[in-house]
Amino acid sequence: MVCYTEGMNPSGSHREVDAARMATLQRDGYVVIEGVIDGEQCKRIRGEAARLLDQCGANPFEGHRTQRVYAPLSKTRAIDDLIDHPRILALLSGCLMPNYLLSQAQIINILPGEAAQGLHHDDGFYPVPRPFKPVHAAFIAAIDDFTAENGATMIVKGSHLWTDRVPTPADAVPCEMSAGSVVVFLGALWHGGGENRSDHPRLAVTGQYCDPWLRQQENFLLELSREQARALREPIRSLVGYSIHPPFMGMVDRRHPGRLLDD
Ligand SMILES: O=C(O)CCC(=O)C(=O)O
């Protein structure tokens, strides 16, 4: 697997990659990092989620008993500490190309009674052969404890290396972790939201990232007003697309897109 251990992330400030975590990510396709955010940060996200979460999904993939906040970066600053968390970015810098981008962010609340989501891999819409060097990676942060009963993300260990095999639900195991922990996984890993058999919702935040030569799923530059983009800190501003993949991918009228925010 290609590994960019010397890679620059958009801020240029997180070159150190945790070798043990990176090895686990490459071997299993995922790695759990405990205690990435603390109880206060989880509480703040819960409060913002309560304000923003509304209707349930319109199809089985979104989940008929799952609420989602789309475009959360245009609605709250409460998840910023996850989107650019140094421990997450360190892993991303080790497997994606320098100047990688945020592809999508969501807050996901799986309500009691929700069925298991279909297993899928997030890079499925990029027409590259399987297996391929990672072009996409993601995190899911547990804002509530993730348990086998309440819909912990189901993960098929090692499936990022599969070619054309399709998993059955029996291949997947729940990624149980305590609130504040994060699972980072490669885009080729089969996974899905779990069935919620408990009587409590299961709240999560997810961020998906892609190589800088790929189209992002979310059109952040249209979602965020200039004012909102100006208010974003680095590296989030670069991650959403106010950045260049040299020599000139991302340019605006020959200039760096960040210059638009200076005008
Ligand atoms: O919420 C989860 O645990 C996983 C959700 C997911 O993979 C998705 O919606 O694409």
How would you sum up this structure, described in words?
The chain has 263 residues and is an alpha+beta fold. The chain has a single domain (19-261), classed as q2cbj1_9rhob like domain (Jelly Rolls, Sandwich), CATH 2.60.120.620. The chain is built from 7 helices and 9 strands. It has helices at 19-28, 39-52, 80-83, 86-95, 220-223, 226-231, 236-240; strands spanning 30-33, 66-70, 101-110, 136-142, 154-155, 173-174, 182-186, 191-192, 202-210. Residues 1-17 have low confidence and may be disordered. Residues 108, 117, 140, 153, 191-193, 204 line the site of 2-oxoglutaric acid.
Give the topology, please:
Blueprint: H1 19-28, E1 30-33, H2 39-52, E2 66-70, H3 80-83, H4 86-95, E3 101-110, E4 136-142, E5 154-155, E6 173-174, E7 182-186, E8 191-192, E9 202-210, H5 220-223, H6 226-231, H7 236-240
Antiparallel strand pairs: 1-7, 2-3, 3-9, 4-7, 4-9, 5-6, 5-8
Average pLDDT for all residues? 93
SS-derived structural category: alpha+beta
Q: How large a portion of the residues is in β-strands, by DSSP E? A: 15-25%
Number of strands: 9
CATH homologous superfamily grouping: q2cbj1_9rhob like domain
Radius of gyration: 18 Å
Major pleated sheet: 6 strands, antiparallel
Which hetero compounds are present in the coordinates? 2-oxoglutaric acid
Q: Can you give the helix content as a percent range?
A: 10-25%
CATH class descriptor name: Mainly Beta
CATH topology: Jelly Rolls
Strand order in the largest sheet: 1-7-4-9-3-2
* Distance separating the two termini: 42 Å
Order of helices and strands: HEHEHHEEEEEEEHHH
Shape: globular
Number of helices: 7
Domains (count): 1
CATH architecture: Sandwich
Runs in which pLDDT lies below 50 for 5 or more consecutive residues are: 1-17
